[in-house]
Each structure stands twice: as structure tokens, then as C-alpha cells.
Amino acid sequence: MKQYRIAIAGFRHAHIFDLYERVKKHPRFALAATCEEDVANSLLPARKIRPDFTSFDEMLAKVPCDAVALGGCYGDRGALALKVLRAGRHVIADKPLCTSLDELEAIEKAVWDTGRKVGLMLDMRDQANLRTLRDIIEAGEIGTVQTISAAGQHPLLHGTRPDWYFEPGKHGGTINDIAVHIADFAPWLAGSAIDAVVAARAWNAKASFASHFKDCAQFMFRLSSGAGVIGDVSYLAPDACGYTTPDYWRITVHGTKGTASTSWNSQGVSVATDHDREPRIVAAAAGRPGGYLEDFLAELDGTQKPDSVHTAAVLSASRWALETQAAAS
Fold it and tell me: Which DSSP category does 173 fall into?
């Protein structure tokens, strides 16, 4: 079977190293080259990795590859994605794909014009508890989904997070950064597309050192089924234990026959139907680590499934995240 060559450009956020390691080990992928234009301010020195190129344009011109992965500052990704697509290569990126609706529309046009594919590291779908939650919903245990509440609060970690997060024009908004996951997994859970942004708000609180950085954000979607989604993606989780609290990525789904709830750190999924005297815990089935990359591979092969992270799903989640960000501004 065909092996695909992927070049990786930008190592400014730790997420990209998940893709980097998976590509190196995957039998169907080969690491074609690495590029970082600002090595000193990247995460490469700490990992003792020396990039093959320090010029993106030079790498794109000289390296034969099928796809380019993007892991640089959020505000830089849209322009780079366009260059890659117009050069006839596929794109896979850490989220978010870009930071403006104008960039997204240009990317959509480039996809249409070139037929190239776009992948995104939307790895929430790969998490064991979330996959089990979806299985419970699809089995009809809680009836038809009516509401989804998603608490994706993160720690701010000022001083630990890269400095570019707090530079104007580099981050692109808290909703676009984090809620793109919810824009992706809410329709996947409910089996219903997002129909509208009902409300959105963002404001500055904890990040008082950067008044332009709106670290608190909440929003509401309406799905085409009529169901509602409420999200909170604020940077208010406590710094020292923010990723380990019981409420990190807490997701609760209410249906017409019951409710199911889980979180990133939960031991399984809590389910209570109209006939249960008390909630019961359903043990998590197997997760799918690296599923986003397998979905990208399937689309390159032309064997993607309708419910996978494929180009149309990536562009849709990106658009709703950006629409919601705009509504909150």
C-alpha cells in the first residue's frame, strides 16, 4: 500500500509532538522533513531536536511530500495552510486550522480548486470515555438527545504556556482555540449538525496582564434536531491541577429517556435512565489513540467513513468555532 510522506512545519505548541511521534512510527507514513523558522522560541531545543529547515518556503519548494503538518502559532497557520494547498499538497494541522473566517473561506476555495484534503488533530473523539458515551447514545439508552453541556475549562498557566499565546494576533480567541473540539464532537455525539450559534460571550478575567486576551468564554449552539449545546471553555481551571480535576472536559448529555455524563478523568460513564433507581457506571470501552491520523490516512486512501474526521468535518467544525468566536467579540 502507498506510503505517504509528511513534512512537519512549526513546533510552537506541544500538541504537534503527538503527530510527530506517530508519523515516525506509522508504517504508512514517512517523516519527509521538519521546519521551524524561530527555533530559539520553539519547543525543539528542549527536546534536543534540530529542524531540517528554518525556512517554510524553502522546505515546501525542495521537499517532495504528500502532506504538510502545521504546529506553529495559531495566527500563522491559515496562511501556511493556503500555501500548502496551492502547492498541491494535503494539510493536517494541530487545532485550530486558522484564526479568521476570511482565511477559512480561502482554504475552502483552495480545497475545492485542488481536491486536496485537510485533517485536524481533533482527538476528543478518540478518548475512551467519550467513545463509550457515544455508544450509549447510539444504543438509545437515554433516548433522543436534547441537551449537551460541555465544560472544557483549561488552566491558564501563564509563564508556562508559550508567550505567543498572549501576543495580539497570535492566539485568535479562546473559543476558536478550545471550542472547535465541541463544534466537532457535539454533532458526532448527537447525530445532528449544528444549525446556529444562539449566544456567545468572551471576556478578560484571570489574564489581567494582557487585557486583549479574553480568557473566559461561554456559548450556546442549536442543533438541526432542535437540541441545544452549552459550552464553557474558559481558562479558569486551577493552574496546579487543571488537567487532573474531575471536571476537566466534563460532558453531560440529557435525552428523552435519561442522562449520561463523563469527563476526561472519569472512570467510565455515569448513566441514569427513567427506570434506574440510581446512576450506574458503564466501564469505558477501548479508546482510539491517534484516531485523527488514521482518519486522515483513510481519506487519503479514499476509504473514509461518513462519521470520521474528514475534510468536510474539519471545515465545518472550524467554521462554527470561528462563527462563535466572532459572535463573542
Answer: -
- Cα–Cα distance, 85 to 325 (Å, whole number): 25
Q: Tell me the average pLDDT across 52-78.
A: 98
C-alpha cell at 241: 491541577
Q: At what angle do helices 180-190 and 311-328 cross, to 10 degrees?
A: 120
68: enclosing H helix or E strand:
strand 67-70
For 233-295, give the DSSP string: --S-B-GGGTTTSTTTTEEEEEESSEEEEE-TT-SSEEEEETT-SS-EEEPP----TTHHHHH
**For the stretch 294-327, what's the b/e string if a residue is b when 16 or more beta carbons lie within 10 angstroms of its beta carbon?**
bbbbebbeeebeeebbbbebbbebbbbbbbbbeb
Name all contacts of 45-51 with Cβ < 8 Å and 24+ positions apart.
Answer: 47/17, 49/11, 51/11
CA distance 89 to 84: 6
Helix extents (H) in the chain? 16-25, 56-62, 74-86, 101-114, 128-138, 174, 180-190, 291-301, 311-328
Domains of the chain: 4-116 (3.40.50.720), 124-290+321-328 (3.30.360.10)
* pLDDT of 95 over the 90 cut: yes
What value does the mean pLDDT of the chain take? 97
Q: How far is CA 290 from CA 39, 49, 118, 196, 295, in A?
A: 26, 22, 16, 30, 9
Report d(CA 190, CA 145) in Å as an integer.
Answer: 6
pTM above 0.85, yes or no: yes
Q: Taking 90 as the threshold, does the pLDDT of residue 329 lie above it?
A: no
When pLDDT is cut at 50, 70 and 90, the band that residue 301 belongs to is very high
pLDDT of 38 reads: 97
Is there a contact between 201 and 214 (Cβ–Cβ < 8 Å)? no
Render pLDDT for 186-212 as a digit per residue (tens, 0 to 9). Answer: 999 999 999 999 999 999 999 999 999
